[in-house]
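Please predict the structure of the following assembly.
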Amino acid sequence: MSSTKKKGKQTVFFSSPPSIIGTAAVAGAKEGEGPLGAYFDTIVKDSMWGEESWEKAESKFMEQAVRTALSKSKITPSDVDYICAGDLLNQCSGTNYGIRSLEIPFLGMYGACSTMALSLSVAAMCVDGGYADVCAAACSSHFCSAEKQFRFPLEYGGQRPPSAQWTATGSGCAILSAAGEGPKIDCITTGKIIDKGITDANNMGAAMAPAAADTLLAHFQDTGRTPSDYDLIVTGDLGKIGKSIVVDMLKEEGFDLSENYNDCGLLLFDCDTQDVHSGGSGCACAALVFCGYLYRLMQEKQLNRILLAATGALMSTTAVQQGESIPGISHAVSITLK
Amino acid sequence: MSSTKKKGKQTVFFSSPPSIIGTAAVAGAKEGEGPLGAYFDTIVKDSMWGEESWEKAESKFMEQAVRTALSKSKITPSDVDYICAGDLLNQCSGTNYGIRSLEIPFLGMYGACSTMALSLSVAAMCVDGGYADVCAAACSSHFCSAEKQFRFPLEYGGQRPPSAQWTATGSGCAILSAAGEGPKIDCITTGKIIDKGITDANNMGAAMAPAAADTLLAHFQDTGRTPSDYDLIVTGDLGKIGKSIVVDMLKEEGFDLSENYNDCGLLLFDCDTQDVHSGGSGCACAALVFCGYLYRLMQEKQLNRILLAATGALMSTTAVQQGESIPGISHAVSITLK
């Protein structure tokens, strides 16, 4: 135990920062048609991907993302000490069936749409702590399985309000290693549950924004860094409404996000032409943007240091139907070439 | 990174084993009437616990277990660096709402009924790795919310086959610390997903038993230990059927579990008089038995070294309705007074 590793209440710095030696992004058709289409390893046009259900298709996205990331990292499943992964489906079944055939020791995660950052955080601790040489971090979501589970049957054709977001279809996986080349995770800031009383399941950005602001603020306070220390700060899937709330909340605390802050939900889709209303969402939103786009920009040294603050609405239909508000959470991962 | 910490493919030994400085077990009425009733901190007779729904009651069990464990450990929520927790409800809502008011950085876990061991495992890595001075590990389940979600409405009064198990109502929480007195977690063995093709949601013991056998075997192979190195080996919630499968499977591999092996599902209830058929199940099963009963026996030095191998059926109703089999997983935690 060396408690000197811990800096501030919510942030830990790694003494041996793990390298992200490879990633993969497997995207759906709409995601492939968006601005980042060129950055994905695979674009799957058929939402069923030849399976009998959207849920089985989601598991296939996950399996394909993990296998592709392993292959690109030139390792096999048996080289991986742990896989940290999760998704939005009840009992995380996208993950359970997706990684079933891999036979990798499995740490099951649930962080809703913050799962990419949660999985990266736990995987980074496993590697830096010496418990693993190699860890995989992965998550998935699927527009059709998520709409069906959380909102309405797709066939119903329910109208979506302007505040609604579009759950991304796809899966991303990152491979963390104690050795090897690649951008490194130098510190993480783990979020608390923040609930400001939003009850509208069609306004997730507003439900999650206070959690993102809380974690970003904790990160800056714990580390002594400011927004300008990063080339890019990205939240996970706040969309237009949530993003503007975060900018306002941080401004009140004295931090200016106007220069270098964006949201994965606004990067993944073109809101003006793709009919996604407030932007993208879902575990796959931050996963596709990080594992596909941002990782490539870091490899190409267009970005040297980023802060990925994925965001999750810890929503359950049962709880919302019982009148509960929607708790949010956000976990931040600092990734650097230095 | 010191890869010497890692012994064998699935097991890690801790260089600074975390102490379990306190636990709490908050149980439902039926659990309180069982053989271990005297070991629980609180027994709640009303399945709604004064709330408007079983789900809200489950969250109250979780909150009460965490707050009681903190109080018994003479610390407050602000002393806790991370809480690792999860439950069986869709999107882990028992946990999300249960710990919402605590404002502790939250690592969300999903391991179905293996969650107590999963949470203990991740919490132990956080403490031993120097990322935390204090971590909480918790989980919950509730018979009524689980039956309603996974099987039939309670009002339907569906008949339960002899292989069925009874989801425990309650929550357990353990507090891990880098300093302080208490039994220590000296090593953990993290399980893989094992699926032998069981599709019967009323025979979870059979679905999980191969996973338990796989993890126990990995533990013995990785550590060089044998069953006789433990005063007690307990699986989480295999019940009568699953337990006998594990004994048979380990016997085939040359390990004799006949002397000192039991299952939390058979310890929590009296199967002969409490009408629980094959035994107890649910996240709370292993949690109540460990946090209530086994922890006390260790404090009283009646047990010096135990292996808690909690077991989870990664079942989703959607997946089962789509004809999928039920994957199992088991995580083992070695706890010692030495």
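The mean pLDDT of chain A is 95. Chain A touches chain B through 66 residues (CB under 8 Å).
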